[in-house]
Specification:
This protein has helices at 2-20, 25-44, 76-81, 85-90, 124-144, 184-199, 211-217, 222-234, 298-308, and strands spanning 52-58, 66-70, 93-96, 99-101, 111-116, 152-154, 167-173, 205-209, 240-245, 248-252, 263-277, 280-291. The protein is globular. It starts with a helix and ends in a 24-residue tail after the last helix. The strands form 3 sheets. Strands 2-1-5-3-4 form a 5-stranded mixed sheet. A hairpin with a 2-residue loop joins strand 11 (263-277) and strand 12. The chain contains 9 helices and 12 strands. It has 332 residues and is α+β, with helices and mostly antiparallel strands.
Length: 332
């Protein structure tokens, strides 16, 4: 027991020391952006010559439509632009040969393509993607909501069903904030931050990368480096998916919707304490949102919000403890 306690103390000291030398948030964001842009440019350069692919459109009124697109350059959104303004404005996600695919992810081969919307007969996949995207937006808000003297470590964005009542994002804030209890005004401030990003209608740009690239992107986050290795180990291709929204780069567990402007009603409803973990005092931020095409009357919204305030229980493994002496992984 004494040995375990000593290890926990050393882990906390190591984590605190790492946080102390972490550069300002603006510098971290700039570095992540630069690495993302460099890798994006490298991947685009893999297709110096235009090679045509056939895209067979599927869906109401589209069956039999064949588009000639550019391999490694054209995206599902590019295909939507060859159709109608309705398809451009209302498409949320795509299916490429039956596989969920971001609207901004380049097509790599001749395929069948289905554009999905919130009003499809079976919106299950779209709703789950929307929930994941709202959680990603919440993480982005938390990452920039505090002054530079306070560190913010984004942990996981738990995959919870829409029926849970709230999307969520786990975070560890600076130890100086351990005694801080968010007020209603604090939650409203976070909500305003999210609404600003929604108003900017920013694209979620996807980029599939090798683990070495992702490790370089998250070189200042010990937890994210652990998460990169976990996701790469679970992926048969050994890669991980990054997304960029504005100047924020995140590690995603799946595709996200096309843009922040697809969100409409959006509110940060709670910030629960989960107790002290190996990385510090863990908190679970939660929120509620409805997409642009689906609005709720204020009385219905109030009931949904009350439900979204309650802690969402997530059955998952405890985050791995920070290593006590092993240096952080480096890119190859």
């Amino acid at each position: 027991m004494a040995t375990r306690t000593a290890c926990q103390v050393l882990q906390r000291r190591f984590a605190s020391a790492a946080a102390a030398v972490r550069p300002p948030a603006a510098e971290v964001h700039s570095q992540r952006n630069a690495i993302f842009s460099r890798e994006q440019a490298r991947q685009r350069a893999l297709h110096p010559r235009v090679e045509k692919i056939e895209v067979s459109m599927q869906g109401p009124g589209l069956d039999g439509t064949l588009l000639m697109m550019n391999k490694g350059m054209s995206t599902p959104l590019s295909c939507a632009r060859h159709l109608t303004e309705h398809h451009v404005n209302n498409s949320v996600l795509a299916l490429v040969d039956g596989e969920p695919w971001s609207l901004h992810q380049p097509l790599t081969h001749s395929c069948s393509l289905t554009l999905l919307t919130f009003k499809d007969s079976d919106p299950t996949l779209v709703n789950q993607t929307y929930w994941r995207s709202c959680a990603a937006l919440l993480g982005q808000v938390l990452d920039t909501a505090f002054k530079d003297d306070f560190t913010v470590e984004l942990l996981s964005t738990p995959e919870v069903p829409v029926t849970s009542g709230a999307f969520c994002c786990d975070v560890v804030l600076d130890p100086q904030l351990d005694s801080w209890t968010p007020s209603e005004e604090s939650l409203r401030s976070l909500t305003r931050g999210a609404q600003q990003l929604i108003h900017q209608d920013l694209a979620w740009e996807p980029l599939e990368v090798a683990p070495s690239v992702a490790l370089e992107v998250f070189s200042h986050s010990r937890w994210k480096q652990e998460e990169v290795e976990q996701k790469a180990a679970l992926n048969p291709k050994g890669t991980v998916m990054l997304h960029r929204c504005g100047d924020h780069v995140l590690l995603s567990g799946g595709p996200l919707v096309a843009r922040t402007g697809l969100c409409s009603q959006y509110e940060v409803t709670a910030l629960h304490s989960l107790g002290r973990g190996p990385w510090g005092l863990q908190r679970r931020a939660q929120g509620l949102s409805l997409p642009l095409q689906l609005q709720a009357h204020h009385t219905v919204w109030r009931k949904l919000r009350q439900r979204a305030e309650k802690l969402v229980e997530v059955k998952e493994a405890t985050p791995p403890a920070p290593p006590d002496s092993t240096p952080p992984p480096t890119s190859q």
